[in-house]
């Protein structure tokens, strides 16, 4: 058994980290306090429709503000939760209540209906947890301690934020636009064309700096495709494209000559090695995670 086999044998004990697509889905939030206000912010970011149930007197000022400003997305009922019919047509249920028994009963009813549910006060019954978030446009980083220490997640978030340049979101937007242009030029799903596109995009992302991508405009993107993709998949130097960066050297992030041919270079590379970098950008969003499992600390 090699190291990887041992790793596979040990897999488990964490949770699935995914970027859940909630656009236009219906989310019920029972409660309107501070925790509910944080939930509203997270769910608005995902373009869902939100129903908030809470007596007016229990609303946190932030919840109140969200309700006033986002009538397009939030339906608010000034009353307590009334029973199981509130769950009809919901795709997700969140409780943020100071009433543990009610929370528990809503979780049970949601589970019977197979609706994913999170109860802010009962981690053991949650189908999923929220996490600390870093967002910059399409870049989405979630820090989760898997229920062990939410405050630790918040502290780690602050540390990670300091390590980012602030250019990542804009760079990813440009990469997304370039990928779309490439797919327009070379349509088709899967097979050799898919592999070639992935190799080229990965090579470009590996060799260019974040800043280089942020400086791309429409015309430059066409030039990258003309001078790169169309020329046997080489990675063009930023100077060829007319990008004026603040960096001194253009030898690429990993010191490779920046006119090397990606297709030739990666021909023998394992697809496992290519996949991680590819998918980080294929999604147009990056979800990084730190699952700090208690036994690791021992
Ligand atoms: C990350 C974050 C995201 C968010 O809420 O959006 C989040 N909690 C945050 C803050 C926070 N929450 C609490 C404190 C006080 C200090 C402390 O206890 O550490 C602080 C710190 C603060 O306010 O700074 C108290 C607390 N939290 C939970 C309970 C119930 C319990 O444990 O029984 C109690 C009451 C415990 C008690 O009564 O003692 C439960 C959960 N909180 C989670 C997420 C899920 C696990 C995530 C994970 O482990 O990574 C989970 C399981 C369920 C869920 O809510 O999904 C957000 C930081 C966002 C940011 O800063 O960016
Ligand atoms: N997950 C977390 O990160 C986290 C953090 C802090 C606290 N908590 C837990 O989350 C819960 C909510 O915290 P909070 O600070 O928002 O509390 P809060 O007291 O500010 O809010 C409670 C809300 O529940 C509403 N409510 C009460 N009974 C209701 C009913 N029958 N129907 C509809 N709404 C009702 C109130 O109007 C109020 O808006 C608490 O149980 C707390 O222990 C979780």
UniProtKB/TrEMBL annotation:
Keywords: Membrane, NAD, Oxidoreductase, Porphyrin biosynthesis, Transmembrane, Transmembrane helix. It comes from the Eukaryota. Residues 169-232 form the Siroheme biosynthesis protein Met8 C-terminal domain. Pathway: Porphyrin-containing compound metabolism; siroheme biosynthesis; sirohydrochlorin from precorrin-2: step 1/1. It catalyses: precorrin-2 + NAD(+) = sirohydrochlorin + NADH + 2 H(+). The keyword Manganese does not apply. Residues 136-161 form the Siroheme synthase central domain. Pfam families: NAD_binding_7, Sirohm_synth_C, Sirohm_synth_M. The chain crosses the membrane at residues 273-296. GO terms for molecular function: ferrochelatase activity; precorrin-2 dehydrogenase activity. Its EC number is 1.3.1.76. InterPro entries: Met8-like (IPR028161), Met8_C (IPR028162), NAD(P)-bd_dom_sf (IPR036291), Sirohaem_synthase_central (IPR028281), Sirohaem_synthase_N (IPR006367). GO terms for biological process: siroheme biosynthetic process. It is an enzyme of class 1 (oxidoreductase). This is precorrin-2 dehydrogenase. It comes from Psilocybe cyanescens.
